[in-house]
Structure formats: C-alpha cells, structure tokens
Amino acid sequence: MSFSQRLVLGPIVLGLAGFLGAACSSDDNNTNLSGTGGSTSTGGSTSTGGSTSAGGSTNTSCTTSNDVEQTFSVTSPGFFFAFDGGTTPNPTITLTRGKTYEFDVNTSSIHPFSIRSGMDASDPLFPTGVTGNDTSSGTIRFTVPCDAPDKAYYVCKIHNFHGEIDIID
User: Fold this and answer.
1) Contacts of 76 (CB under 8 A, 6+ apart)
2) pLDDT, tens digit (0-9, with 9 covering 90-100), for 6-28
C-alpha cells in the first residue's frame, strides 16, 4: 500500500474502528495506525485485543487460564438445580472471563445439566470454552472466553428449568 493510499484509508479505518467501539490512534500522517478491541486494518497497522460480542465485553487485559478457579457440585434435588449442597433452586452464579471452572454434575438422568447461550432448552449450547457439556453425570469444564457475553445460562434440556450465569471481567 502506498503512502497516499494510507493517507486516504487511515481516517476511514480510524472512523470505522471508533464506530465499532474500539480505541485507536495514528501518527500525524496516518502512516502508522494502531488500535485495540479487535479492529482490523492493513498496511503498517497493528491491532491487539479480542472481539466484541453482543452484550459482551472487550477486555484487552483478559488472558485465559486452564487452572481451575472453582469447582461447583451440581445436583437436582427436585425439579431444579442446586450447587454445593445448597437448597436454593437455580441460583445465579457469577464467573469471570478468562477463568476456568468445573461443574461436577450428579443429577437425575431426567435433569441433564447444560450451559447454553439462552435460557430455553432449544437455545444452542454455549459455543466455545465448554467441554463435557449436557450431562447428568460427569464433569463439565468451562473456560470463559475473554469475549463472552455478559450472560449465559444453565438449563435442564428436558424440563427447561434454568438459572443465570453472570459473566464479569
């Protein structure tokens, strides 16, 4: 890309990145562009950070860890899920982007536990970071992506009872 093309494209890339909510900068001649938040450009530019998903966060300081942050024991003492021996039906749990969690699931076979993108049993399973999803006996491992939305859900796919997972930075 020539210098004159960068002069023309620089403001466009910067304008688009700003529109998308990314932080960006350039030198006075728009010859060296840089940005964060997943902006993309070519011709001497640099970009760092993740992508932004609907309702999610761009956390440029987020790094994922495979070390287990917390293990939850999941049971189904009735037509609900309970965590760590508690009796509160379907409590909201809070997870942090970049951290790894395990769910030791021991529920009735008619109450399989799954982590989903929506609160309905017909909503898709959470798309990334989850292994062993949708089980009534076993371990689900969830490494929360840095670009995860602010909410996920755990759901019984047979009876459709569910709880919220708040995802924070």
Assistant:
1) 82, 107, 108, 111, 113, 156
2) 333 333 333 333 433 444 344 44
